[in-house]
Amino acid sequence: MIVAGLTIDWQTLADGLGLGAIYALMAVGIGLVFGVLRLVNFAYGQLVMAGAFALALASQWGWPVWAGIALCFAVVLVLSALMDRLVFRPLRGHSPAVMLVATFAVAFLLQSIALLWFGSLGKIATSLAYLNRPWTISGVDIRKIAIVAVVVAIGCLVLLQLLLERTEIGLHMRAASMDFATSRMLGVRANRVISFAVLISGVLAAVVAVMLTVQTPLVTPDFALSDTIVVLAGVVVGGLNRPVPATLGGFLIGFATGVLGGALPTNQSQYLPTFVFVAVILVLLVRPRGLFDFSKTVERV
Amino acid sequence: MRRHPEELLGPVVLVVGAALLGTLVSISTQTYFTDTLVKVSIVVALYVFIGNSGVLSFGHISFVAVGAWTAGVLTVPPGEKPAIMPNLAHFLLHRHVGNVTSLALAALVGGVFAFVVGIPLMRLSGLAAGIATFAVLEITYNLLQYEERIGPGLNAFSSVPETTGLRQAAIGAVVCIVAAFVYARSRFGRLLRATREDDAAARAVGASVYRQRLVAFTLSGVLAGLAGGLYVHLLPLNVNSVHLDLTFLTLAMLVVGGSGSLFGAVVGTLAVSALDSWLSVAENGTSLFGWHIDLPSGTAEIVVGVVMAAVLILRPSGLTGGRELRLTRRFAWRGSASRAPA
To answer: Do A109 and B305 touch (CB under 8 A)?
Structure first.
């Protein structure tokens, strides 16, 4: 298949879908916390990194796969809870810039701790490596992880949607992300809603950690850092205010990165970040409030 | 307009004091002082835009980077260029300029780059502006990494004459401070701060938010480019030394000091640098009051990260509260409001 001068085969397309699915989950994780706290969590990638190190350590110790995944979830959830208690809660209500720079500081801190603990060479997570092997479907090789990622992402998003639509805490979360002050007056418990959003976002980070370590088994202290930057761009491009546009933005940028990365000739693929970020700037210039934000509100004085 | 000479003198005295202190220590320790003074220039450049406009920018280190590349490429001795930069474009191969000219060109290129980037980007505000400037940083990083026609690519800028000593770094920092002060006092600076405090009211009195932001962005690009030139003359940079870590460190210095004031920018840089440098020295083993300290390497980053997060959480308007230095507090409410950038 040839699109706009690029040769795209099914393998590339599947990889793009897989990466898009993983980025969509990260986008949801970042978007949920933004919804209730108005805080862009730059340290989200370091949660994923911590989970990935847990998986790598588990496979180094020869633990079974389920135990490694359990350890990964435990580490990420404890870390998210700590982040909420020690950083997000005291920062609540501060200006977005201060909150963003503070999470920047947290990201830097966690990365330095990982560097001190594990060194810059990193560790290898091997327990799920078999997912990297291809499945042959009607003569086309497709890596299992691409399919697994898409299925897991769809599963997570459906569950999350049910949670938000059908449960009381979900209703509270939706109310809080629309208008925090009013929903508090109507009986929504701020701490509970925020802790819950952070918890869900942590679960998603752990899921992402498992899938990213399959794609990139070498876990270094800057694991998921560049992914987070790309996802943040995608989320803002989609529209950070509402969950569906944010998810779509994350998926879109992941898909574009995956497909371009596979389809560009080698002498151009090193400039992949340039292509992606030029596109980000162009979209932001045309639609500064997000690609999928069709509301027409102009600030009145 | 009430005159407050200490608003300019305070930061200048701090810089000169740091430079004089640097002459008293050993040569190896002196590098930390010089490095700090270069960072003062970078953070003051950040302040010119972020402090006055209230818009967050993650892209300024890319202006530092192009300044460093400009000054570096033009001052590597011509005989050594083919060895360090084998794929350098032909027109750069034989160009060679002196130290001062290279700094001026670094400032010029930084300013032109900021102006060109600012023309589209200054229409954005809030998170969109933050992400777009981040995109500029990533694009610059990516291009400098692989464009070997304009620099050393992934290699370090070795053989650049190390002309940035204490004196040159201090002069550079003072130049940046004076420029930032003059700008903040000018009609442009006042209009921009008006848009920061109340966008609608500033528009109502005829201020163009876009034009004022573009002016500040360009000026801060000039200063950042100059700082980049100073930096490459201090130590052999590579592309990773002008990327995320420096962006984080300088932004944190600005916010820790108090992003709303020039004084805050300088105080934040000196405070964070002092802590960071002392810990780096301690990593290599030092003794304090007869006590031998030998921290594991990497401790500096962790302690600095904790301190920064703590300052941001406990005192979000920074150490100075975003106020300029005033020796008389009677009219302190005039002028500098202490609002953190939105």
So the answer is: yes
CA atoms within 13 A of residue A298's CA, in its CB half-sphere = 2
- For the purposes of burial, counting CB atoms within 10 Å of the CB of B296, is it exposed (0-12), middle (13-18) or buried (19 or more)? exposed
Mean pLDDT over B160-169 rounds to 91
Based on its alpha-carbon atoms, the radius of gyration of chain A, rounded to whole angstroms, reads: 19
Residues A201, A44 contacting (CB under 8 angstroms): yes
Handedness of CA B333, B179, B192, B224 (dihedral sign): negative
- Which one of A87, A106, A233 has the shortest CB-CB distance to B135? A233
Contact B174, B41 (CB under 8 A): no
* Residue A43 touches partner B, C-beta closer than 8 Å: no
pTM summary value: 0.89
C-alpha to C-alpha distance for B220 and B46, rounded to whole angstroms: 6
The full set of domain ranges for chain A reads 16-223
**From residue A296, how far is each of A244, B118, B203 by CA, in Å?**
18, 26, 21
The verdict on a CB contact (< 8 Å) between B120 and A91 is no
Picking from B146, B298, B309, the nearest residue to A271 by CB comes out as B146
Whether B128 and chain A come into contact, CB under 8 Å, resolves to yes
Residues 58-87 on B with a CB inside 8 Å of A are none
More confident residue, B148 or A77: A77
In chain A the beta strands, taken as DSSP E runs, fall at 2-3, 6-7, 123-124, 134-137, 140-143, 218-219
Going by the DSSP 8-state scheme, the letter that residue B295 receives in this structure is: P
Q: pLDDT confidence of B243, banded at 50, 70, 90?
A: very high
The whole-angstrom separation of Cα A255 and Cα A13 is 8
SS3 B17: helix
- DSSP characters over B222-249: HHHHHHHHHHHTTS---GGGGSHHHHHH
Residues B316, A95: C-beta atoms closer than 8 Å:
yes
For chain A, the straight-line distance linking the first and the last C-alpha, in angstroms and rounded, comes to 53
Complex prediction ipTM: 0.88
Query: Would you state the pLDDT for residue B290?
Result: 63
The C-alpha angle A13, A15, A19, rounded to 5 degrees, equals 120
- Give SS3 for B187: helix
- CA geometry: angle B253, B259, B262, nearest 5 deg: 90
